[in-house]
Amino acid sequence: MIDALQEGFKAFGRKMRGYITEEAVVVGVESRTSSPVRIPRNADTLQHPQVKGLFPCGEGAGYAGGIVSAAMDGERCADAAVKFLTSGR
Ligand SMILES: Cc1cc2nc3c(=O)[nH]c(=O)nc-3n(C[C@H](O)[C@H](O)[C@H](O)COP(=O)(O)OP(=O)(O)OC[C@H]3O[C@@H](n4cnc5c(N)ncnc54)[C@H](O)[C@@H]3O)c2cc1C
Fold it and tell me: What is the position in ligand 1's atom list of the atom closest to the CA of 33?
């Protein structure tokens, strides 16, 4: 775990200038950033391939890893649900 974190911090440091400093102390870590499972969904309709009208969405369904990505995925799924309800597709 320590080796992986050290490697990860160094990799971030190479991508984001100023990320690594001498001023931070790690006291606890999140070992996952999002759901370990993903409910399948069609890339065009955003519906489950077998369950019509089911829109797997957001973090729990495996399509987001934080507040902003969950919000954006929710917006896309809401649009897809409206399309489904109004046109049946
Ligand atoms: C401690 C912690 C810190 C975090 N910090 C950050 C951060 O700093 N930055 C960041 O970007 N992300 C952070 N996240 C992640 C972020 O909060 C989530 O990725 C995001 O909120 C997921 O949004 P969501 O809409 O997919 O799911 P959720 O926000 O979990 O929404 C799911 C909703 O469904 C409802 N629900 C569940 N079951 C049912 C049911 N049967 N019927 C009806 N409703 C139901 C729940 O009550 C909930 O309101 C953090 C998460 C945690 C736990």
Answer: 15
